[in-house]
Amino acid sequence: MNTPKEKKTRKQGKRSPGYPMISLEEAIQKAKILWEKDKNNPIPLKAAYEHLGYKAGSTYGARVLAAMKKFGLIYEKQNDIILTDEAIDLALHEAYDETYTKTTKKLALKPTSYEKLFNEYGGNLPSDATLKIKLIKDYDFNPDKVDGFLADFRKTIEFANLSGDKELKEVPQDQSYLTDMSGSSSKPRAGTQMQKMQTSTDIEREIANYPVGRGLKARILISGGSPVTTDSIEKLIKLLELNRDDLPETVDDEKDE
């Protein structure tokens, strides 16, 4: 006959090995929020919860912070949260910078379960159906948790460009041209010749739609997985200011009626 302890253990079900509950991309977004709030200063644990929008000590918030630790973005010291050097690099560099891409590749396989699964297949991952069987049989995963794990694992591998599906290619210097606002091509301004372009399947989304004259409307479209911040809007404004001279001097700027 089963003892009460055995019955309780069976009721609780199998516990999966430790793994991050969010993808690397989402974890980086959380780290950037902490950077924007407190830069590289120690952040009291309670404040870190509040910065990320969680109630202090909440189970979900604790699991998010645990995931950020597994990816090597933060560590805890004397009840303070500290951003790692890698997290600071990701906050300071643009997504097309070499430092950013190298850092994401490095952090993507920080979680032990991610590294083990990725290296077992030499990076040439099979189908989800095959991986699910592997995780349940050989990795002792709870069958109810496998789908969520695989979804975040796949997102992380793709985000870090470890799958080979998306490659960053440097634009040749003699072909590096920017299209200005009048539709003509001009050589890039200082600092843009080494810009890298990334093939992306991100869906564009409209964040603003303004009337700017009779019969004229301006739409602002954004693509990419990161949230729109005040910093990114400031950069857009500066780019528009830089291109002001390329626009015709006389336009019928009549107000909409």
Structural overview:
- With 257 residues, the chain is an alpha+beta fold.
- Helices cover 42% and strands 14% of the residues.
- Helix 2 (24-38) packs across helix 5.
- Mean pLDDT is 78; it is low at 6-11, 165-202 and 251-257.
Shape: globular
Estimate the helix proportion, in percent: 40-55%
Number of β-strand runs: 9
Structural classification = alpha+beta
Question: In sequence order, what are the helices and strands, one letter per element?
Answer: HHEHHEEHHHHHEEEEEEH
Proportion of beta-strand residues:
5-15%
What's the mean pLDDT score? Answer: 78
What is the alpha-carbon Rg in Å? 24 Å
DSSP summary: helix tally: 10
Low-confidence stretches: 6-11, 165-202, 251-257
* Strand line-up in the sheet with most strands: 1-3-2
Report how far the terminal alpha carbons are from each other. Answer: 84 Å
The biggest beta sheet, please? 3 strands, antiparallel
Put the structure in a nutshell.
The chain has 10 helices and 9 strands. By secondary structure, it is an alpha+beta fold.
Map the helices and strands:
Blueprint: H1 4-12, H2 24-38, E1 43-44, H3 45-51, H4 59-70, E2 74-77, E3 80-83, H5 85-92, H6 98-108, H7 112-120, H8 128-138, H9 146-159, E4 168-170, E5 178-179, E6 185-186, E7 196-198, E8 205-213, E9 216-222, H10 230-242
Helix pairs in contact: 2-5
